[in-house]
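yo

u said u wanted the structure for the complex thing, so here. seqs first:
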Amino acid sequence: MSEMKKTAITLNVNNETHDIIAYPNKTLLEALRDDLRLTGTKESCGEGVCGSCTVLLDGAPVRSCLTLAVAVQGKKITTIEGLRVGEKLHPVQEAFVNHHAIQCGFCSPGMILTAYALLKENPTPTETEIRRAISGNICRCTGYAKIVEAIKSLAEEGK
Amino acid sequence: MEKFSYIGKDMKRIDTASKSTGEALFAADLALPRMLVGKILRSPHAHARIVAIDASRAEKLPGVKAVLTARDTCGDKWGVFKYTQDQQFLPTEKVRYVGEEVAAVAAVDEDTALEALSLIDVAYEPLPAVFTIEDALSPGAPQLHDVYPNNINIHVHINVGDVEKGFAGSHLVREDTFAAPEDSYFQGEPYAVAAQFDHAGNLEIWMPNAGPHLKSKPLSNVLKIPLNKVRVRKITIGGAFGGRSEISPADVICAFLAKKTQRPVKIVYTREENTVCTRQAHSMIARIKTGVDREGRVVARDITCHMDGGAYSSTGPIATSVPFLCMEQAYRMENVRYNGYRVLTNKPIRGMFRTHGRAFACGVDIQLDRLGEALGIDPLTMRLRNARQTGDTTPTKSYVASCGLTETIEKTAKRSRWAEKFGKLPPYHGIGIGCNSVQTGFPMGIRGGSQAFIKLNEDGGVTVITGIVDNGQGNDHMIVQIAAEELGLTPDDIQLITADTEVTPSDPGSYSMCETFIGGNAVRLAAQDVKKKLFRIVAEEFGVGEEDLSAKNRKIFVTKNPEQSISITKAVRMALTRNESISGEGSYWPNVDWKREWVKNPYGQLSETFSFGTVICEVKVDPETGQVEVLEVTASQDVGYALNPKVIEGQFEGGVAMGGQGGMLTEYLQWHEGRVLTPTQLGYLVPLAIDMPKINDIIVETIDPKGPYGAKEAGMSVAMSAAQAYCGAISNAVGIYFHEYPITPDKILKAIEEKKKGDRKE
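structre next:
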């Protein structure tokens, strides 16, 4: 670590600006969890396979474990904590709760953000499009059926 | 009026909104003031003597607050049973698998902790190691432990009826061998533990667990502090699947580091540590010999099963027994012999797994298919002719109080249109069936029963206090449903304090599917206790009998004249002003044979009731690539009574994913000697959304006489039947019966090739 120097990093997360001092090799996941205490973003594999650490970068889902914090300055970062509006759950969160798409809940933040991004881009996805979109997010509990149902219910509303 | 307000209804789970927002905290999310980072140094050798450990360089590194070695943990040994205490939390003499804990550090941050690990000098003397069941059993093989000759850790022997006579009298007998390598849990949440001590020597500790009381007692033993000083706290748990039940060396190490530093310490496992250093599922070789009569009814069965248990006992006696016990529950078999051997190797430790024993279960089911084929009887009829029935007694002497297996077979067959499909599908299309049964707990000694308390608030709301733990399956919601139903309150009126050893009374934990049956019954009894006390006061007020009253919609009313009512709030206030106790308690102790013991006496009532399931799967195999496309799966289980049907469907669907789609197609650990080559989701392929077929769920209800509202358990029999259905379907599609699992494309292509050449006639 001695060759590397800490640097100031400015992050725009959920419409708030945060300044942190960190080594340039700090991942966005570490910055969110350890510096900003936004622990809704989860680490499950740490190598970009499972999707648990998904956050939105200017609206697009990315793996925060493979993203360097220093590289996303000036971009709009959305974490699961930034989705709800005041006291109310966001409709995607509500659909997940209503359709039993959440069991242990560890993959849910990443899964919900992926679903949110999909519906923003394509408000009426087909089942295959839904399955494809969430296939970067691993859920070990549900077998995905209820997750697909939850997203489908929103797709139908979008029609 | 409807019978129930909440029971049997599709209800939103009370815990999922906070999981949807990131508010729910898992162990790795905890941050306490002055918290240190703990890291564990692990063995690079599969088998080696520890000659010396020198931690002086690590201790001197700035930022390191403590280094822990076996000197600190006194070499204490842990085991689930008195006769299996063989694992030291930090080994003193030798390491037995790659990844075993050797030392640990607590430091101000992760980088420092990792650097400190690299400064601990361990001198090893490598020893010859064994990596397979065959090698471990061969004469002259290196021995892992002095106390287990020939590396045989556990031998379970069951012998019922006259097996030889049964074979002699059978119309047809076959013997086959089935095998599968290790699979793994891959819970979403990697293992994590946080611990702190206060000035009075009380330990607070958070970790994923399948029962806080299963954790607190061994912690109390090894830390040598009374149980009331060990406070295992409630925390959100990211899946267990059988893998979070025992004390982990990480729990002990974290507690010792917290004690040594007098600061909070948190250890978060990497994905690789979660795969290698928690538990894995056993690899297995099952030799099964079955004799049937002309109609396909099993007359005699003889099973010898070898399981690779890895380096230590873990839940060995249970693991060695359960695959057999599930099948003896599912199918009638009068003359049966079972020899289960758990063999020790220099590989990571194996424990109980949700879909434990795919080689075993597929062996029994696929062999039924083969026997049926020889007799001209289809697989469905073979199942129906051998299916367990209500009122039966299993070979090892468990009375079966309720059994809907036949109904699950019939309904699953109808929904999947079995009769139209079996034997009539186009080439390389196939359909298969699997059945199984699971327990709702077993004799668990002093922690075998559950107790619950209920506290009433002056506005009529309540707090339910129970040791029931929620691993993600929805147990917390079940408690709320039961309490609200019994007390005539709404779910909003119920608060929970659960899974906290300081506050909550004894409970067996979410282990072996017992929380609904045992914990749920205790909560129901506690609620009934409260209700009785309130009814006594209201009955006196109304001048009616207690039995004339009901509670619903936050009111207590005369059942025959609902107009005559009083709000529960008012009833509570009346009780308070009369100085009458209105807290409730309930306890449930299952009716099992407490003399039953896994090895010494494997006979007697194992569990008070059992669930039964059937899965049918339809596939299409690509003969060019060996790829399997799963077209549709139908899953059914006798759950007793569905407390919350959507929750049960979710369990079925998750069970099909883990047991069938993953368990039969893609999931297995790959090895180089004792080293796991596929410790992450990159190499170990758990099913993705795009992989999963359409799943039809069928809930069968038999209303168990003792279950809460008739409920038993919510989906394990489906999880334990899915592999067989997948295997049967692929075998049916290819025209070759598969005996080695999972059935990967290379095995399918090889089978098709051999079949074409005529090498394999099936």
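The mean pLDDT of chain B is 97. Chain B has three domains: 35-127+189-238+244-277, 283-443+596-757, 444-588.
cya
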